[in-house]
Amino acid sequence: MVVQSSWYNFSDQDSQGYEVLSNKYPRGVPMVLDFAFRDGSCPYAGGPVRPGYRCVNGNSSCVNATSAEGYFCKCWEHYDGNPYIPNGCQDINECELRKQNPHLQNDYPCDGVCKNRLGGYDCPCKPGMKGDGIKGTCTEKFPLAAKVVVVSGIAAMIVVLVLMVMVHQLLKFRRFYEQNGGPVLNGVKNIRIYTRKQIKQMTNNYRRVVGEGHFGKVYLGTLKDKKQVAIKKSIKVDTHMKKEFTDEVIIQSTMRHKNIVMLIGCCLELDVPMLVYEFVARGNLYDVLFKCRDKILVGTRLRIAVGSAEGLTYMHSAGESTVRHGDVKSANILLDEKFTPKVSDFGTSKLLVRGKTEMTEHVIGDMSYIDPVYMEQGIVTQKSDVYGFGVVLIELITRRPATYDAERSYVANFVEACLAKRARNFIDNDVTSEADIDLLEMVSRVAVDCLKPNPEERQDMKQVEHRLLEIVAQSEDHSQERDYKGDFSPAPDDVALFKGLGE
């Protein structure tokens, strides 16, 4: 007997000679069993299981043969395999079948998210939809009108939040502007008030740092006319320091001299104000003297000394009120490409009543250059600047950096040598010309007078400047040097730069 079936057949009798082809065909394809059924049948419900009934897989069913004695073993729906062996019927992954065989998608419909499970599969609708994914009844939970309302509401909230942030920022910038003296400085001549955005553009988002110290950082910036500027972070201005900061900016705005770094403007919309100065390309005198070992001619050193003295003289005598620098040192004297000196860093400048002194509780500036009287008594005068300038002269003569100790041996040893006519022992070894040595010995005597312990015995900066000019007049190459007579008017380059700011 030839029987077509999709099931396996098993007989408890000898089956030798009968060929079973079922496991060579996929599910759903009929197979030919060429053997005769033997006696035996499925046990009735609740009846005893007789020996030889071999449907041993838990995911299968026993089915009586209809055309002959015997029985069939059949895997349950959604299972496939051999029902006559343990674990022979395995779960079908309908979701994988749909993916790998598109022609089976109609057999396993799913209009949502297919999720396999033992004995079948589930198909919930996609997020935002409701219904039955197997029956194809998924519909959107929210109609188009509701979506429009929700999206519009979210957009409105975002706009409101952005506006709130912008208003908060504007109020914060306004508060900084007023705290840093904006209402006063806005009407000051020669000073331009820059916005935070403009400073960011000028520095290319603060990309290049050209200086750094206890005061903060200095950034390189570029104006619209391509001129370079130095943008410096100032000290934090607390409420009690507001007037002091404003006064210092006003002082600097009046300083227009070829030997003083020009203050161009400031930005007040920040917690820490920023000051915009002209950019001086070569850097400060300290670095040129002690970090670059190139030979520096005596004539160049004299030009630096005289120019620096001119700048300080102008500062001490300009305007109706007396001004002092407060931190004169080689690091605060900048040099341009032609070694023209420019006095810089007015961070500690104060308005002083002419002829009066000021008491202070805090030491300001570099200890190596500070007047001993200031250290001991807290008395500040313009003669304190003269003392600091005397230390700078020693550095120009010896090319040895100033140092500080309790005995002030740096200054004391130099003064002692000069008084003993041994100043040439301290002169820089690069200086070998006898004429140049003579010139530096003359400068040494000026330095000694600047460093006298009693401020009343020190000369003022105007007198120091004149003495240095007399030394230059005696130099062999005086005819090749520029005219160092005092000129308190702005240099042509400074005038051009200032005019460009107002455009």
TrEMBL record:
InterPro entries: EGF, EGF-like_Ca-bd_dom, EGF_Ca-bd_CS, Growth_fac_rcpt_cys_sf, Kinase-like_dom_sf, Prot_kinase_dom, Protein_kinase_ATP_BS, Ser-Thr/Tyr_kinase_cat_dom. ATP binds at residue 233. Pfam families: PK_Tyr_Ser-Thr (PF07714). The chain crosses the membrane at residues 144-167. One of its GO terms (cellular component) is plasma membrane. It comes from the Eukaryota. One of its GO terms (molecular function) is protein serine/threonine kinase activity. This is Protein kinase domain-containing protein. It comes from Aegilops tauschii subsp. strangulata.
